[in-house]
Task: inverse folding
């Protein structure tokens, strides 16, 4: 199962969803993406949501390093292969998680 | 809702990460004043941070003063505390003042909504450009450097080619 958890207060989830769909298509997969909106601090705690967007493949976060950050309604930080900061995972992270 | 173009800059007196208080009056000699709603924790702020630092450095000699302001609620976002602001400014070597708007009064007066969000004021301290630093958080994909172009225009005594854009970033974290 592929889950995309997001918080509406962060604008990055449409971009993350589009990238995820693109990578899935390139890999020839037709998995459905389960979108889950996180609306409160309590939900963030309960869902172990370290920020928006969070993408899990069969329950495993595509960015294990950031997965254990404090649960919060916030924009999540990802690092691109060249070290730059990004509000969405890198294509490589998604490809690695989906292979 | 942010202040309108042509509005006067709101007055402020806020503590900076350098240990000093900074007021609007202190920047009276600057030709242009760039207030940037900012913070530590937001990936959009971090993605644009290097470009903002470059703007501050590139135009300092021409009298352009950049001032970053963090107004976020630190009880919910401890990464944005004053101590963490000091640490980030030191680590990154910010070439601009970084002020803590703890009571959020400046953010409210500006009507700021996002981080980063730019408010560029002219010599008479009227708002002349508001919005994003440029058109892409990905430095390699930038095609319009809104803030730089607005600064260049005002320094040349002309109108900024674009005066308002949508700031893309995290929301200001209100108390």
Result:
């Amino acid at each position: 199962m592929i889950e995309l958890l997001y918080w509406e207060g962060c604008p990055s989830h449409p971009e993350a969803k589009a990238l995820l769909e693109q990578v899935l298509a390139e890999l020839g997969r037709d998995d459905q993406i389960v979108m889950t909106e996180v609306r409160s601090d309590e939900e963030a705690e309960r869902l172990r949501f370290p920020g928006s967007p969070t993408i899990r493949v069969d329950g495993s976060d595509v960015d294990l390093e950031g997965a254990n950050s404090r649960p919060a309604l916030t924009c999540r930080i990802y690092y691109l292969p060249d070290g730059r900061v990004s509000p969405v995972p890198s294509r490589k992270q998604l490809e690695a998680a989906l292979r | 809702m942010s202040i309108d173009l042509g509005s006067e800059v709101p007055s402020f007196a806020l503590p900076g990460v350098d240990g000093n208080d900074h007021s609007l009056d202190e920047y009276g000699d600057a030709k242009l004043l760039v207030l940037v709603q900012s913070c530590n924790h937001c990936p959009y702020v971090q993605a644009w941070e290097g470009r903002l630092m470059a703007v501050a450095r590139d135009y300092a000699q021409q009298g352009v003063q950049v001032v970053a302001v963090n107004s976020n609620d630190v009880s919910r976002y401890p990464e944005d505390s004053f101590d963490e602001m000091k640490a980030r400014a030191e680590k990154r070597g910010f070439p601009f003042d970084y002020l803590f708007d703890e009571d959020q009064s400046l953010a409210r007066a500006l009507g700021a909504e996002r981080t980063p969000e730019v408010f560029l004021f002219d010599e008479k301290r009227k708002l002349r450009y508001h919005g994003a630093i440029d058109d892409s958080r990905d430095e390699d994909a930038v095609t319009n450097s809104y803030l730089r172009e607005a600064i260049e225009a005002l320094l040349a005594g002309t109108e900024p080619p674009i005066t308002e854009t949508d700031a893309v970033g995290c929301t200001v974290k209100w108390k």
